[in-house]
Amino acid sequence: GKLFFNVTGNIGSYKNKITKLAEEVVTDYPWNGIDKTIIVRPYSSVYGYYADGIFQTEAEVASHANQEFKSVGRIRYRDVNGDGQITLADRDYIGTTDPDFVYGVNFNLRYSQWDLSLFWNGVYGGYNDVRGTKTYTDFIGAAEITGENYGIRTLDAWTPFNTNSSIPKLSLKDDANEKQQSTYFLENKSYLKLRSMELGYTLPKHILNTIGMENLRFYLMAENLLTFYKKSGKNAFTGADPETPGTAYPIPLSVTIGVNVSF
Q1: What's the CA gap between 210 and 208, in Å, rounded?
Q2: Domain span at residue 69?
Q3: Taking Cα atoms as reference points, which of 37, 13, 9 lies closest to residue 25?
Q4: Measured distance CA(186)–CA(24) in Å, rounded
Q5: I want to staple 123 with a disulfide (CB 3.0 to 4.6 A). Which of 93, 99, 137, 208 is the partner?
Q6: Contact at 8 Å (CB) between 180 and 168?
Q7: What is the end-to-end Cα distance of the chain in Å, rounded?
């Protein structure tokens, strides 16, 4: 039989910028930093503190700017304006939740009675806000959430015997206000997914003529089959699925077996 192969793709990007407002709006409420309306910035701006890792030693704590509740094992915030203290004035524009671009690729292959189609799509760039999942994986304010299971990351939290951890030490209450918006809760939005794959087989014409059918095709289809994203290192994504950053569950894999019949 003849081989047929076809590839199509698309890529798209968009940018937006707020150019005029009756009054610039930047809230003083530090816990919500993903919907700021700021002149010359994108509508989907992320605004908050820059987290510079975890205080590992008492010497680091002593040499850092005056930060309320600072101690070993707690998040260290950057003194953006250099005034020697961490205040609301140190919050800054971080980036956007919009990806730099989105893309998709379709592969279609047909040989003899067999056909195969693959659809890949993904996004590149931008931030995911993962406070929803890190509430259950990073042990900040444990007493505020009862009757719930915590993620395995909790086992790697900072302790005097685990001083290289990037996860704050265990605490029953969020006394250090670490749930406020910062880069600690912003992670890589990029991913590539095999969104769908379909394999089919169509009976030959001479068999169809024998059984009195116009067409009979059997197929197997899978959706959300593969997901690729950065899982370790700098700017990695620590959740289950970059497409569902606010939950602990990925978009599920689904498999369908079917038949197309025509007379």
Answers
A1: 5
A2: 50-90+136-178
A3: 37
A4: 24
A5: 99
A6: no
A7: 24
What the block records as the tokens of 118 is: 């693959």
Q: Do residues 110 and 222 share a domain?
A: yes
Which residues are CB-contacts of 84 (< 8 A; sequence separation ≥ 6)?
Answer: 65, 66
Model confidence pTM above 0.85? no
Identify which has the larger pLDDT, 87 or 36. 87
Rounded CA-CA distance 158/55 in Å is 9
Structural domains of the chain, count: 2
Domain end (from 150, 178, 206): 178
60 residue type, one letter: E
Same domain, 257 and 155: no
Strands 114-124 and 127-129 come out as unpaired
The answer on 256 and 171 residing in a single domain is no
**pLDDT digits over 141-199, tens only?**
555 666 677 777 888 899 999 988 889 988 877 778 888 889 998 989 999 999 999 99
pLDDT in tens, 39-77: 888 888 888 999 999 999 999 999 999 999 999 999 999
Helix, strand, coil tally for the chain in percent (to 5): 10, 35, 50
